[in-house]
Amino acid sequence: MNFELKPLTLSAAVQQKSDLLLVLVSETDVPGQDALSSVWAQAVKAGDFEAKAGRVLSTYRLPAVQCSRVVFAGIGDASPKSVRQGLQAGLGTVRAEQVKRLLVVLAGGQAAAPVLQALVLAVADATYAYTTTKSKGDGRQLQRVTLAAASLDAPAREAFRRAVATVGGIELAKEWGNRPANHATPTLLAGAAKALATRGSGIQCEVLTPREVARLGMGAFMAVAQGSEEELRFIVLKYQGAARSQAPVVLVGKGITFDTGGISIKPAAEMDEMKFDMCGAASVLGTFRALGELRPDINVVGLIPTCENMPDGRALKPGDVITSMSGQTIEVLNTDAEGRLILCDALSYAERFKPRAVIDIATLTGACVVALGAVRSGLFASDDGLASALQSAGDAAQDLCWRLPLDEDYAEGLKTNFADVANVAGRAGGAITAAKFLQRFAARFPWAHLDIAGTAWKSGSAKGATGRPVGLLLAYLLAAGAEETRPARRPARSRAAGTAAKDAGTA
Ligand code: BES
Ligand code: MN
Ligand code: ZN
Fold first, then answer.
1. Which residue of 15, 49, 365, 435 is most buried, as measured by CB atoms within 10 A?
2. For a pocket test of ligand 1, which of 365, 432, 451, 452 has the largest count of ligand atoms closer than 8 A to its C-beta?
3. Is the CB of 224 under 6 A from ligand 1?
């Protein structure tokens, strides 16, 4: 999709050629003297239109307006949610096949940064279509979207630039998430990662094969892959936007391209949805695409262990004990708890980067879907600062998460007589016990885990990947990059002096 941002008043908008002119009206907007304002004001007066989010007024061939389809859509209080609702309602009035060029004008004239961000994300979401494995397209024509307001300041332009890059990342994550497993093998996923390392992107990519993974001693990752005819891959992406000396943030994405459950096989119903079990990996790819476009001052490493989880004569069996890269032995009581097995070795591998933070992203547990549904991703963290930074990033990006606990008592069920740790505990608190398992391999750095089992894709008639949590991850990385380059805070000495003075005062 081609997005463009243009300074345009309502009276200038009538001269523009497009297939649909969408005029977004918020509750605080006041009509001006132009032709469009006059229609809007009369419709409000007659009770045929109001600025409430979701209300629309569809018009055709208005005199003196170039574009034959003009739709007024209310965006209420102009909150991200209302903007999305208004935009969806506005677009819903026309057939997608009719619109090649879309012009969206903010009637109030101002383009606040959060409104623009919400608008770009909402347009992209409403007009996205997966076509890769369809023999014909789906009839959609949209090629160019112009967003316009009378005045556009620097923060608005920056918000637009970020939002467009975020959309590119989200769409890449959706694309790979949606591809069926026979069109998204570990090898193909590695190819997609390599394709990100273009000139001028700041991205490098290295792909490890089974032989190299064996040499590293990734026994847990290899054990999951051993039941499949498809070769595993371990993808290492590096984005360098700051000095080499600066510690990177490491993102680790679960890349199970299909999860049958293995010998602990899953029921047939909805098993097709386990093609989405690489959405964590896809979110890492999407985030890197956006990093390459935005070029922020930060270093980021992306790690993707990717393989299939299949039943086979050579597959892992319940009760098998395997040795992870960390040296810890693991009793595999359930071969369907495979995500944590591939992630634990990737977490051990992350140590070599001496990271400032490691964040893993995984469609890890059905229990997380039960706990949080499709609204918020599960967030776990060994570090409070990292947890609150991720939570705020999610809020800012409209890509929400919710922190869950990591009390040591939750690890009780992972104890076994036959290895250092078991890969499953009981049914209770399943999202948390999975996180407790991972935490054993993340002791050497600040660590967070995002369980996206409920948020990475939608089921039912709207079945498809959501691209989450690319928005959250990018917002976090951009904020972390800005923090790193900010001048150092006050030296400890003066702070200590301040404390001493305060203590003296209260004594
Ligand atoms: N990929 C699944 C998690 C999943 C299941 C995500 C359903 C979304 C919807 C994961 O590998 C898995 O199978 N987890 C098991 C763990 C259990 C065996 C402890 C689960 O959640 O049932
Ligand atoms: Mn599984
Ligand atoms: Zn899985």
1. 435
2. 365
3. no
- The DSSP bridge pattern shows strands 457-458 and 377-381 to be unpaired
* Any atom of ligand 1 within 6 Å of the Cβ of 378: no
397 in a domain, yes or no? Answer: yes
Known catalytic residues are: 266, 340
* Ligand 1: nearest atom to the Cα of 425: 19
CATH of the domain at 48: 3.40.220.10
What is the atom index within ligand 1 of the atom nearest the CA of 338?
Answer: 11
List the pLDDT tens digit at each of the 507 positions of the chain: 899 999 999 999 999 999 999 999 999 999 999 999 999 999 999 999 999 999 999 999 999 899 999 999 999 999 999 999 999 999 999 998 899 999 999 999 999 999 999 999 999 999 999 999 999 877 778 999 999 999 999 999 999 999 999 999 999 999 999 999 999 999 999 999 999 999 999 999 999 999 999 999 999 999 999 999 999 999 999 999 999 999 999 999 999 999 999 999 999 999 999 999 999 999 999 999 999 999 999 999 999 999 999 999 999 999 999 999 999 999 999 999 999 999 999 999 999 999 999 999 999 999 999 999 999 999 999 999 999 999 999 999 999 999 999 999 999 999 999 999 999 999 999 999 999 999 999 999 999 999 999 999 999 999 999 999 999 999 999 999 988 777 655 554 444 443 443 443 333
Residues 114, 177 share a domain: no
Indicate if ligand 1 lies below 6 Å from the C-beta of 279. Answer: no
Report CA torsion sign: 48, 51, 53, 57.
positive
> Under DSSP, is residue 242 helix (H, G, I), strand (E, B) or coil?
coil
Q: What type of residue sits at position 61?
A: R
341 Cα–ligand 3 center, Å: 10
The CA–CA distances, whole Å, from 258 to 303, 310, 450 equal: 18, 8, 20
Say if residues 308 and 497 touch (Cβ distance below 8 Å): no
Ligand nearest to the CA of 426: 1
Are 58 and 192 part of one and the same domain? no
Asked if 390 contacts 382 with a C-beta cutoff of 8 angstroms, the reply is no
Cα–Cα distance, 160 to 155 (Å, whole number): 8
- Look at residue 267 and tell me if it is in a domain: yes
Domain that holds residue 213: 168-485
Structural domain includes residue 504: no
Nearest ligand, measured from the Cα of 424: 1
Residues near ligand 2 ion, CB 5 Å cutoff: 259, 336, 338
259 lines ligand 1 (CB under 6 A): yes
CA of 445 to the centre of ligand 2 (A): 26
Radius of gyration of the chain (CA): 25
The answer to whether position 502 is within a domain reads no
User: What type of residue is 335?
Assistant: T
- Helix or strand or coil: residue 29? coil
> Ligand 1 mean position to 80 CA, how many Å?
32
